[in-house]
Design a protein that fits this description.
Layout: E1 3-6, E2 12-19, E3 22-31, H1 34-53, H2 58-61, H3 66-69, H4 100-111, H5 117-135, H6 145-155, H7 169-190, H8 214-223, H9 226-238, H10 242-246, E4 253-254, E5 259-262, E6 265-267, E7 270-272, E8 281-284, H11 287-300, H12 318-333, H13 342-353, H14 358-365, H15 371-377, H16 381-385, H17 390-398, H18 405-416
Antiparallel strand pairs: 1-2, 2-3, 4-5, 5-8, 6-7
Length: about 425
């Protein structure tokens, strides 16, 4: 068992432990008091835990140590979580915990094992672009709520994508959200209060989907290049996400049962698990989808495992298709410029308009329940079906003998309004 001890001659604490059959003692600049002992005891617990797991990295904890320079100990160039425990801030105050830049690398290594590859890339990008420039040289425990609010305000001045002048409120929230988890973990390890308190997400305007009408869908499918007709037919009438259709393989197309089995997706050019567990689903093929896939099988079934592929048999690049096929086609047809993802929204609204059961539609879409369905899509149904309350009025009038006449009249006026 290791221990936290103090040198008699200096009164400074040091860590005393054994590793690889050797006694290791690492000096700190911390005075011998209860607070500093608690900090080092937590660090020692982590060291001993990693030694037991067989993954202790001496250089990561003590990169300044002479022992870390020895070939026996020097196993990693990553800087230590514990290094910053014996430093002070620029204004002379005690630094709380390691530098933010040190801790976040540790947090990333520990967390990313549970993430999808695309999420790992996304978080790494935010760390390098936003977090490190703002907080990298500051002790993780010295960052205040005011610092976080200033950081969020600075994000509102960053140029957005796709022609947006600034980052959207939704994007800013997505950048801030991992910080909450980072500081919660750091506060727990180094015994300070997380600064991420009373910081609520920015209000995000309600998302506005723009589904196509059935007439527009038919116009698009009839007008698109012949080699993409099957692709867009499946997109519009299956409700599949972009990564799901681009990563669709023939082994997941069951012509006998007339179902598409969604089991994988392609994100950032790599095969991955579906967006959520509920996204793992079987989609019933309607007639146009069944015919389109049969036609596509005759075209690519023998050349690739992917349903929609390029000449090399690799999955199609949806960004390339969008720029070279989708947007030029909408412009040619005089239709408003909309993202191809609207094909998924279109499928949902057409199913609702046709009177399909909401539970069935939710399963087709890969939603866990019908909440999203009613929240996002139901407002489009009256325009598509002309079901504007008249069916309810007829139901009430059929049983008018059991209702007072003034109630029936009030209901009629309310429906007409």
């Amino acid at each position: 068992m290791g221990a936290i001890r103090a040198r008699k001659e200096t009164g400074l604490l040091f860590i005393d432990f054994r590793w690889e059959g050797k006694r290791c003692r690492e000096q700190t600049n911390l005075r011998d008091n209860a607070t500093n002992r608690r900090k080092l005891e937590k660090m020692l617990q982590q060291i001993e835990s990693e030694i037991k797991l067989g993954r202790f990295d001496y250089a990561r904890f003590f990169p300044e140590s002479k022992s870390a320079e020895n070939s026996v100990f020097n196993t990693s160039p990553i800087k230590s979580i514990g290094t910053a425990l014996n430093t002070t801030t620029e204004d002379g105050a005690e630094q709380k915990g390691p530098l933010f830049s040190v801790f976040i690398e540790e947090w990333l290594v520990e967390s990313q094992i549970t993430w999808r590859r695309s999420h790992q890339v996304n978080i790494r990008g935010m760390i390098d672009k936003y977090y490190l420039p703002a907080f990298g040289t500051v002790g993780v425990g010295n960052i205040t709520r005011a610092d976080l609010l200033k950081f969020r305000s600075s994000l509102a001045k960053v140029s957005g994508r796709n022609g947006n002048i600034t980052l959207s409120a939704n994007r800013i929230n997505k950048i801030m959200d991992p910080l909450r988890r980072i500081f919660e973990e750091a506060a727990d390890r180094y015994d300070f209060t997380t600064p991420f308190v009373r910081i609520k997400p920015l209000k995000v305007p309600r998302s506005d989907v723009q589904p196509f009408t059935l007439a527009e869908v038919r116009l698009i499918i009839d007008s698109v290049r012949p080699d993409f007709k099957n692709y867009y037919t499946v997109r519009f009438f299956s409700g599949m996400r972009t990564g799901e259709i681009d990563g669709l393989k023939w082994k997941y197309v069951d012509f006998e049962r007339r179902v598409i089995m969604v089991r994988e997706t392609i994100v950032a050019g790599e095969e991955d698990y579906t967006k959520t567990d509920s996204s793992q689903r079987d989609i019933a093929m309607c007639g146009p989808v069944f015919d389109a896939l049969e036609n596509q099988y005759r075209a690519t079934g023998a050349m690739s495992e992917y349903v929609f592929c390029n000449l090399q048999g690799l999955p199609v690049d949806h960004n390339n298709i969008t720029k070279r096929v989708w947007y030029p086609l909408l412009s040619h047809l005089g239709l408003e410029k909309r993202r191809p993802y609207q094909s998924r929204h279109t499928a949902a609204t057409l199913w609702l308009a046709a009177g399909e059961a909401p539970e069935w539609i939710a399963r087709q879409m890969g939603h866990a329940n019908t909440e999203m369905l009613f929240k996002v899509y139901s407002r489009y149904v009256p325009n598509l079906t002309r079901r504007d309350g008249s069916a309810f009025e007829r139901l009430l009038l059929q049983g008018q003998s059991s209702l007072p006449s003034q109630v029936i009249e009030a209901i009629k006026q309310e429906v007409q309004a």
